[in-house]
C-alpha cells in the first residue's frame, strides 16, 4: 500500500472523537423523535386505566343465570326430531367419533338414542324451537339470542363450571365477575361489585364452591359476595343492640387509623382492601335495606316473577333481587340454580326444574325491559355443558336420563349489545356435533368482555411471572350474536 | 480543508445519522407538529438535488484533466458539499412529510430508502472528493450509484404525488377504480357478488390486481384469484380455519404476514366473520341468498353487510367536545353520586345517583359544573321532585335520562324538549300523566320513552303510539287477570323444630300476606274449604304427619306441605351403632339418632346416617328398664340418590343385651315407580313391656327394582332419628 493511502487511513484520535461525538449526538437527537426505540417501550397494556371502560360499552352490567348441573339442550332449545325417529337405536360410531365419555357411561355397551319426551314449537320472528316446558321463555324469544353451538373442554361438573366461571378448569384463576370488577370497578360503591345468589331446585343437584366466585390472584375486593338465602340476604349488617350509627362511624374511623398504621409498616395491599371493605359495609347498612325491601314492589311484580319470589332463597326471589341489585349498579350478579343433573328420571325432574326457573327468568328480562335497563344489562342463561343424545343406563318405557355432553349445548343471552331474536349456530341432526358456527367458552368470555367495553386481550394481570387474562391465550369475538 | 468546510461537513454528517435513524424508525417517530410542518419543504427542496446533484455526480466519472486546476476543484467540492446538505435536508423533510397519512406504503418505502441512499451517497462522494485522490475508482462508482438512486428514487417520488404511470405515454385514463354498477341486492343475488366481492374489492384489490400482484396473487379476476398466489390457494372451501386468507386476516397486526398490511384499511370483525362463514359454507361463487334458510347466519350477516351503506359500520358515538375540569369531576364524585366517563378517552360523562336516603336536591344542582359534558343521568328511585327538571334542562348534551321511580309528577316535563340530543327518557313507576307525555314527545331527538306504571292507561298508550310513531313507547308487563297463579306452599317457621319437646308448639308461616292455611293431621289431603284453618301454633301428640295448604281468593291453592312431626318421647340412656354407616353419611354417629335434628330428604344433609353394604343396626339402652309399646324410625326416600325404604325393619328387646328376642317387625311397601323424594315415618308396634335393651335393624334393598335406572344395584337406607313411646 502506498504511503499516501496509509496516511489517509490514519485518522487521528481527535478526528475519530469528533466524528463519534457527532454521530452519538445525532442518534440522541433522533431518539428524541422516536422515544420508543431505546430501552423497553412503556408497556401499553400496563398503562391502560382500570376502573373505566376502554371503549364505549354496550352492556354496563351482567346478570348470569347459571343453570348448575347442565340442563339438557335436547329438552330446551335444540330440537332434534331425528332422535325421536331413531328412538332406542344405537348411536352411530361415526357420530360419536371416539368422543371421550364420563365414567358413568363409558362402560355402557349400548348407547340407545332417545328423543325429547317434551313437545317443541316454533316461536317468535326467528322461528326458534323451544320446548313446551318453557312457555315463558318462549314469550321473550324476540328479545333473546339462543346460541346452540357453545362447547366446552370439560366433561365433569366441577371443572366445567370452573372453566365457565374462570376461563380455566383448575380453579386457580379469578372468575369472570372478579375480572369485571377489576377492569371496570364498581358503579355503586355502596354495594359489592360482584354478588352471588344461590338457589336449589328439586332435581338432582351438584355443588357450587366459593372458588367459582374467587378473586384468584386479583385483589380480594374483587371477590364475589355470596348473599345468604335466608330472610336476611346479608348477615350481620345491622348494628348490634346498643350501638348506633355514629358510634359505629367512630369505631370505623379509629380502626381505619390503626389499619393505616399497619399498612405503613407492612405495606400489604390486603390491608387497604380491608379498610375499603369496612367502609363499604358501613354504607351497605343504608343501601341494602332499600334493596331487600319488597314492600315497594307492586303486586304485579309478584305476578310477573311468580309468588315464589317472596320465598327467600328461591330462584324467583334471586331473580328479583338480581334485578334490584343490577338496577342499583352492581356490575356482575351471578346466580346459580342447582338441580339440572338429570342422569336419570329426566322426564320426572326436568319439568320441576323448568317450573322453578321459566317464569322468573323471563320475568327478569321483561322487568329490565320495562325499566329501560335491558339495553345496558346483559342477561345470560345456561349451564356448564350439554347432555348426551343417548340414554344413560337402560332406556325406560317413558323415562330416561342423559349423561354429560361437552361438544354442543344451548344457552341464551339477552340485552346489552346482543342481537335480539336470533338463533345462532347449528348442530347435526343427532344433536351431537356442531355443524356451523361453534362458540367456545373463551369466545363467549371474549364477547362478553367486548360488550362491556373491555378488549379481552388487554385486560391482564401479571402473576407468577406472566400476564393472565380471562381468555388467557384464546378467544375470538362472536360478531354473529352482537347487535 | 477550510474551517467553513469542516463545520459544514460535520453538520452534513450529523444530519446523515439523523436521517438514517428517522428512516429506520419511521413507524415509531413521534414528531412535534412544527417539525412535521417542515416536511412541506420537501417538494421545494427536492429540486436542488434533482438538478445539481445529478449533474455534478454525472460530471465526476467524465471529468477531464481541466478539473485538476486547484481552484476549480475546491469550488466543485464546495458546491458538492452544499448540494449534499440540501439533499440530506430534502430526505429528512421527506420522512417528516410521510408521517401524514394518505401515502401508498410500498411506493413510499422505496422512495424513502432511495432518497436516503442518495443523501448518504452524496456525502460519501464529497468525502472522497475532498480526500485529494480524485481519480479513484471508488469515487466514480459511488457517483454512478448516487445517480442511479437519485433517478429511480425521484421517479417513485413522482409516482407518489402524480400517480403511477404519470410518465408513461398512454393517454388513456388508467387506474381509475372500476365502478361496477351493482344491481340492487335481492334474494336471488349471489352472496359472493352482493357481499364478498365488494369487500375484497374495497380492501384487497389495491395490492392484488392485474397491475400489481403482491405475493403473486391477483384477486380482481375470479379465475386468477382461485388459482391463488405464491403461497398457495386462498382458501379451502368448507374449512375456513385452515384457509390462508382467514389465517392472514386473523394474525396479529404486528405480524409481517398480517393482511391487509399495517397502515392499510383493515377488515372489520363482521367482515372477517362474513368471509369465514362464506368459506365454511363452501365458498360458492354462485349461491344466492335464497339458497339458504332465512335464519342462516351467513345469509343474515351477508345481507346486513350488503345492504348497509358502509362496509364498516361503527355504531359507537364519538364525542369531540371539551372535557370537564378533572378537579370538578373529582370533587363531585362520591359513593352516592358517581360520575364516570363513557370510556377512558371520552369527554362525555355519565352521572348516577345511589341510595335514596343520602339524596339531597343540591346534589343534582352541583352537577351544573359539568353540565355541558353529561350525556346520561340516572336518578332511579331518588326522591327527586319536579324541581329537578329545571336543572336537568341545563344539561344540553343529555341523551339518556333515567327518572324511574322518582318523585316527579311530570309538571314541567315539557322543558325537556329543549334538550336537542335527548333520545331516551325512562319514567316507569312515576306519576307522569298522558298530556305531559304528549308535550315531552315534541323533543326532537326522542326515540324511546318508558312509561310502565305511569298514569297513562292502555288506551292512552295506544293513542300515544298512533300520534308519535317515531317514538317507541314501552308500556311493560300487564298482568293477565284471568291467569290463576299457584300459591307457594306454607313453610315451617323454624325448619329445625320438627321434633318437639313436651309443651312445645309447632308454628307455620307463609310469605304472602292475606293467605289462609288449612291443614290435616290424619294423613288425608287438606282441602280449601273444610279442613281446619291454621290460626296459630299447634300442639302434637306423638308422631304426626301434618299436611298444610295455602289458599287465597284469586289464586290457585298451593301444593301440600308435608311435615313429619315428632314428640321427643322417651330418650334412651345410651345409643350404639353396631354397623358402620357409609363413608359420606356418618352424621355425628349414634348421637344423631336422638339429637332432634331432622334431615332433608331432597338435599341430603349432614343429619343422615346412610347404610348400603350392611344393614342399619342400632342398639339403645334404657337404664333401669323402660316400658315401651312403639318404635318410630324417621327415614328418607330419594330414588334419584338410590335411597329406598328398608325391605324389613326388625326390633329386638330384652333384659340382657346378649339375649334379645324379636319384639316387632315391619315390612314397608316397596315403591313401584319413581316418585319425588320425601321424609318417611315408620311406626313399628312392639310387644309392650319393660325393656332394658332395644336393637333395631333396617335392611337396605339388595337389588333395585327393574323400573329404577340403577336396576340390580344395591340401594341405601337413610335414618336420622329413632323415637320410643
**SS-derived structural category of chain B:** alpha/beta
User: Based on CA inertia axes, which overall geometry of chain A fits?
Assistant: globular
Major β-sheet of chain A, in short? 9 strands, mixed
Arrangement of strands in the largest sheet of chain B: 1-2-3-4-5-6-7
Number of strands of chain B: 20
The fraction of residues in strands of chain B falls at: 15-25%
Shape of chain B: elongated
What structural class do the secondary elements of chain A suggest?
alpha/beta
N-C termini distance of chain B: 127 Å
Give the radius of gyration of chain A.
28 Å
Structure in a nutshell:
With 483 residues, chain A is of the alpha/beta class. Chain A is built from 14 helices and 17 strands.
Topology:
The complex is a heterodimer of chains A (483) and B (725).
Chain A (H helix, E strand, L loop, with lengths): L2 H7 L3 H21 L10 H4 L13 E7 L13 H5 L7 H4 L23 E4 L4 E4 L3 H5 L4 E8 L5 H10 L9 H9 L9 E7 L24 E2 L18 H22 L2 H24 L6 H7 L9 H13 L4 E7 L7 H25 L6 E6 L3 E6 L10 E4 L3 E7 L6 E3 L1 E2 L6 E3 L2 E2 H11 L9 E3 L2 E3 L15
Chain B lengths: L2 H22 L8 H6 L3 H4 L1 H13 L10 H29 L6 H26 L6 H26 L28 H13 L18 H6 L16 H7 L18 H12 L16 H11 L18 H7 L4 E5 L7 E5 L7 H5 L8 E5 L8 H6 L7 E3 L21 E3 L7 H7 L7 E3 L7 H10 L4 E3 L16 E2 L6 E2 L7 E2 L6 E5 L23 E8 L9 E7 L6 E4 L31 E3 L4 E22 L10 E9 L2 E8 L11 E22 L17 E8 L1
Parallel strand pairs in B: 2-3, 3-4, 4-5, 5-6, 6-7, 9-13
Antiparallel strand pairs in B: 1-2, 8-10, 11-12, 12-13, 14-16, 15-20, 16-19, 16-20, 17-18, 17-19
Q: How would you describe this structure in keywords?
A:
heterodimer; A: 483 residues; alpha/beta; Alkaline Phosphatase, subunit A; 9-stranded mixed beta sheet; two-stranded antiparallel sheet; 17 strands; 35% helix; globular; B: 725 residues; Leucine-rich repeat, LRR (right-handed beta-alpha superhelix); 4 domains; 7-stranded mixed beta sheet; 7-stranded antiparallel beta sheet; 17 helices; 20 strands
